[in-house]
Specification:
277 residues, alpha/beta, D-Maltodextrin-Binding Protein, domain 2, 2 domains, five-stranded mixed β-sheet, 10 helices
Length: 277
């Protein structure tokens, strides 16, 4: 890389890092709903708990859940789907935001009824959550710096990967293997923006994450990153709604609602609005 190219890359890297910082500051403005009683007090009204569906989301996971900067509101596929489900169930809806590492605390303590935030069904998670029927099939991919030499997943064997802590992407990274071997090290980071910053800082070689989320960020910075679509994950990832183990009534209600939303085409329309092909 000559001096001119290096300076250009450095400037672009700074722009991306500043954009990530702005994105995360913008997304930190969302207010958490800590309890139903606190919510009622805030809104000055009595809340019918039986008529309220409280949905837990990680607001740093576009295009599924994120804050629209212009409106300062939660948007994304999972936000729209949550509202459609609540409509089908005849319930009011409230969203609770948390970092991904906090999801179990919120679900198991009853602060939320369910998690609808691009959560993948895995064998490990089946032991502690009950799941609805899937609403989307996707896969995990790898993002690399555009100026890197990597073209295929097998070239990443022996390199440093990153994945979101506590995510199914981490499980994929941990079981990744190719004809050349496995990852040398896996960094566990808070979210995808941190993974991309890690790439720019050369702290890692590949960011493993869900394809639509990686695609969202790569599309906004096409001169900085490329996506390696094949070879990172050989399995299909199925996304569903997670609820507390044993809450069979809610699972049944969710399944009926999602089935209806699929059947009448509303889910497909929502996907076309939010997901990049």
């Amino acid at each position: 890389m000559n001096r001119k190219s290096f300076i250009l890359f450095a400037v672009l890297s700074l722009i991306v890092i500043l954009s990530v910082i702005f994105y995360r500051v913008s997304n930190s403005s969302s207010e958490r709903v800590m309890s139903v009683s606190a919510l009622a007090e805030k809104e000055g009204e009595k809340i019918d708990r039986d008529n309220l569906l409280i949905v837990g989301v990680d607001q740093n996971y576009p295009p599924f859940v994120y804050i629209d900067v212009s409106s300062a509101k939660l948007v994304g596929l999972d936000i729209e789907l949550s509202k459609l489900i609540a409509e089908e169930l005849g319930k009011e809806i409230k969203f609770v935001t948390f970092s991904w590492s906090e999801k179990d605390e919120y679900l198991f303590s009853g602060k939320v009824d369910m998690i609808l935030s691009a959560i993948a069904i895995t064998e490990t998670r089946k032991k502690k959550y009950d799941f609805s029927i899937p609403y989307l099939e996707t896969k995990k991919v790898g993002a690399v710096r555009r100026d890197s030499s990597y073209k295929e997943a097998k070239e990443l064997a022996g390199k440093i990967a990153s994945a979101q802590k506590g995510s199914s992407s981490l499980e994929v990274a941990q079981r990744f293997t190719s004809s050349n071997g496995t990852f040398r090290e896996i960094l566990q980071l808070p979210d995808v923006p941190d993974q991309l910053v890690s790439l720019l800082k050369a702290s890692s070689d590949v960011a493993v994450a869900e394809k639509y989320t990686i695609g969202y960020f790569v599309q906004s910075s096409p001169n900085m990153f490329r996506v390696i679509n094949d070879g990172i994950d050989l399995d299909v990832t199925k996304l569903a709604v997670a609820v507390k183990k044993g809450n069979t009534k809610l699972v049944e209600d969710l399944n009926k609602a999602i089935t209806e939303i699929k059947a009448d085409g509303r889910l497909e329309k929502a996907k076309s609005r939010w997901l990049t092909k």
